[in-house]
Amino acid sequence: MDLTSFLIDWNEVAAVGYMAPDEMMVYAFTHGMGLIYAFVIVLMAYDVWLNAKQSQWFMKKKWVFLAIDIPRDSEQTPKAVEQLFATLSGAHTPISKKEKWEGQFQLSFSFEIISIDGYVQFLIRTTDYLRDLVESAVYSQYPDAEITEVSDYTTDIPSKFPNDDYNMWGTEVVLVAPEYIPIRTYTEFEDSVSGEFKDPMASVIETMSKIRNGEQVWLQILMRPTGAEWIKKASAAVMKLAGKKGPAPKKPFYESILSSIFGLFTLNNGESMFYWTDAEANKSKKDTKKEDLPSQMLHLTPGEKGKIEAIERKASKIGFECKIRLIYLSPHEQYNPGRVITPVFGSLKQFSTLDLNAFKPDAKTKIEWFFVKHRLAERRQNLIKAYKFRSNRAGHSHFILNTEELASLWHFPSIEISTPMLQKTESKKSEPPFALPIFTDRPATVRAEDELRKQLHTTQTPELRLDNKYFESKFAKNKEEANNDKKASPPKNLPVK
Question: What's the predicted TM-score (pTM) here?
């Protein structure tokens, strides 16, 4: 809406200004402001009610934490994790209006890298009904991976600060430029001469493994599957950079509302205090007569062309709504965020480029001026609670990262990374060779060992029995259960060719 398209009768406005304060309030309330107040109150009440409904629905969900360990000799690149994220995008479900009214919303995955006393672990948090999707996505790219369900590591950490045992530093990591502009990805970490891949995860893992006993570093990436609406912003930015005229933007809904509200401001003589001119209509007629300018692609600098290509490349892949949180915890006597956070955040700076996008700490992280201690404690409490609940509502607004960007930030380290405190499986799992010899008659030495076991069995407690029957009774199925597991025979009425 063009603010120059209407005029104000300042004489009438001055007449209102001479009224007493109570008369002015009554006048404003009866001439349109009352509707604005009512509209704001209704919106606030609806937001509170919807938040309560969503909390009720959310608390009914069961969550699982999966620790992922891959073999030490795995030669997979971040491309495998990119395919993993693409698979998880299948969890996106359009929410109908009825489901929104019931409090339903799109749930998030939480991909985390934690270091406790220097022990580094990769974790995935998901709902129980999406566990099969996560495990199948991991196994499809890492068949020899080990997935173990673990407890939530944040439960032992207090949520109230200041605390007698721990001190805390934390922030949310946000983008510098608009979300449709990409960050530096793993495809740019390959040496153009030798072809060697310089894994950006190496510095992150190495830094997190250097912390001291008692210290903890948590890196959390919340990712929520989303639709393709964000691509419209990328397309509009490309059209603007290329000097082309894109589709006419849709007028915001508040323009018609404000037009109606301005019409309610009537004076005693029945005339409107604001009246519209035809300047906007004349402007639109001129715009329709103006010929479209030729494309400016030929006049763009190499940097501008590269930016357009980067935006289009990001928009060509699946996107997720993301939030990134970084937390450092330590006992008071060895609390030193500069020693830990500076190198960790420096590792994240690898993915920043000055001509495209970059990461930075949230501006609210630094507390200055008034009531510093109180505001700092409140900031820490809000951040640790948001981290523990893996909240998508609390904190900074989410931003879009596509599968390639996510795979650059969170992927299993390459075979060259030899950090001793990084948890990996010792070796790959494999089937036994099919050509192993099979003995139908057991040798005399083996039979002698069996006789010895039977003799020992009579003198051992039930908890220490060594015979096979004990383990079969505890962990294996009995014969009846095994028979029940057999496949049923086909129906007798099947057509026979």
Answer: 0.70
